[in-house]
Queue: 4 jobs
Job 1
Amino acid sequence: MTESLSFWPVECQDGEPNLFVCLTCLEEVFQAKVPVEGCPGCGAIGAFEPFNLEAIKDWGTEDLIRKAEQWPSSSSPATDSHSDQSVE
């Protein structure tokens, strides 16, 4: 990704899902944050919903599962939650 993205942080309580998946394209996942400008994959605005890794493994595509598995396995926000890159 050549462009820098801006994100809104999302506070997640312990035990709450913290992986936000774009339900329009099912190709982007972010931990404890959502892109301000919409999904970098399809441009959808407000299409992100929280899931835990186990749920994503139940219905996600292989690519989405791979991206979700790259995030640290934790219910709390990632230490780099203000990073400007999605997991690719």
Note: The CA atoms of residues 28 and 41 lie 7 Å apart.
Job 2
Amino acid sequence: MKILILLLGVMLASPAWSVHVTTGLYKSLIDVQDKNGKEVTNPFSPALTVGTNFKFDDGFGFSPQLGFVYHTVKTDDSYGDYKMYSIFLLYDFIWVPQNYQFFALRFGLGTFRKTITGKGGTVTIPDGNSTATAYRPESATSYSSTMNLGTDFTFNMSNDWFKNMGVRFEVFAFRPLSQEFRTYTYNLGFVAYF
């Protein structure tokens, strides 16, 4: 963690950088089940990211982002409510084609930290012909790695696209090396460059 902070400090001292803020919607492409076992679509969740762009060479750069998602998925059972949120760090590279300054391709890796908080305690659940006691944690945290792919489209076709506004679309593949457990989410938002 100390090395990451040091690396970000050195990058922020670079003269060729800009800050960008994205606000938008985050959605998981897997469905959840209601209390009757039927699949229901995951809702959109609000997301906010802050990041920087560093130019390496003509058209190429590094664009790390720190983000927050407040998941709007709610329990639909009698076991109580919980809150869920994610904090993520993306290590994206960007490429702006020479004749298309309004477009940028993003690709890289990410780390997501998902936290679920609730009341804790125990619940009694059906277990065949009897019941069983299950423990509910007050808080649980999980970490996931992602591969990211996305695009930025800017509204103003100026030569310096870093000081601009636009739309960002990015897809995240969670556990990308696992065929059995791989899942996808996406983020669509409005981005402003400062």
Note: Residues 35 and 76 are 6 Å apart (CA to CA).
Job 3
Amino acid sequence: MPRDIFGRLVQSDMFGRKISKKQIKREVIDENRRRGKAAEDSYVMKARLSGYEVERTGKGHDFRVRKRDPFTGKVTYNGVREIKSGNAKLSKLQQKTKRRQSNYKVIRENSMW
């Protein structure tokens, strides 16, 4: 999605033709999806470097993380993580999961661009 020097979305292409609102919205959603995926990938890399086992889960949260004792192999920490990029909000299901689980944590990842 093209942007001007101030970071605002450009409403027309390089030939001056107007871009439809539907197309702009589609491209913004795609951009947000890419940012979210990049934030999740970044978190997984950081968590694995910190010694956590990271497992992708189903609905309500993104990842289940475990930390094991290197000598005994027993799980010393078990938690659930929801990764958000920018100022994204939690969905209703994620808010419900957060209220029910004490080990639920929301992580805000900021991408480099």
Note: The longest strand covers residues 75-85.
Job 4
Amino acid sequence: MISRRKFIKTAGWGVVPLAAALNSCETVTGTSGRDDWRADFSIMGDAARFEAATIVTYQSMIDSGILDEAPPALLAGMNAALFKGHHEEHLALFNEAFAAKGLAAVDTGGVTADPRLNDAGNWRDALILALNLEFEAAGFYFSRMTDQLTTTAVRKSFANVLPIELSHVVAFKFILGEQPAINAGLFDKFTIATQL
């Protein structure tokens, strides 16, 4: 039997090359020296404005009381407030990056709720709109991250936001009783609720 001390001494040296190899396997990288941070920050500006509009739309849903009509077990209002908070975090993340480059912040001032909210006749319609907003956001982050962004920092920011957006989609599908709430294919086969 090998002693613990001998194992740690031996295994420790085996971990160093593995850690170095894994660290060098950066999966979110730029495009071979053609990084264009100005273009990427323009795309991030679009994302920030989308986040601001989503925040305002959620707040309008909450303020209108339309979600109060949902069955209490669905916790529709609580989830809307929670997800709004996530979008506030995303906007803050983007604004930190803008500040680091000396660019203007994006806020919710002057932003109006998504006009589709006017067509929401009940809590279910409002949640279908929320689901669609989240799905649109996930699609935006996924497409920009995979085929347009060039800088590692912005791609990492989008990679951190994307799973949150998708988790919101899955949560709303579950709340709306759409089964399966998770299905294969991400964007190819991922079905969403009926449009408003």
Note: The longest helix spans residues 37-64.
